[in-house]
UniProtKB/TrEMBL annotation:
It comes from Gymnorhina tibicen. The gene is Trappc9_0. GO terms for cellular component: trans-Golgi network. This is TPPC9 protein. PANTHER family: TRAFFICKING PROTEIN PARTICLE COMPLEX SUBUNIT 9. Residues 16-125 form the Trs120/TRAPPC9 fourth Ig-like domain.
Amino acid sequence: DILVDGKVCDCDIVVTCQVGDPVPLQVKLTNWSKHSVGPFALTMMPYQDYQNGVHNYDLQDAITFVGSNTFHIDTVKPTKDSVYFGALLFLYTGDFYLNIKFHEDNCSRELPLSWLCLPSVHIRAMEPVA
């Protein structure tokens, strides 16, 4: 589950926020399997989509994270969940997207890391209303 500014998000919803106001993020990973899972790393990466196949991830002048954009998840037991909180601060107006990826964080494996990517979250940063 992904919540942006307290609202549940999916790929069909555009969340609006104001430039200059921190936007709370909440990502909840629920383990529906019969076995414990982990360790994982959760990474959130903002980008702009230029609608021509190009994604701009070089946004350090437009967006900043309040806290970290990567979290370590040790183990999630069956039917339990793990919740991570953060915040984004938009410095300019525009349409932005947020990639949220979970990947295995176990260096003892000989296989490549596997990734679980959630649908991108669409966030529209707007000028503050006077």
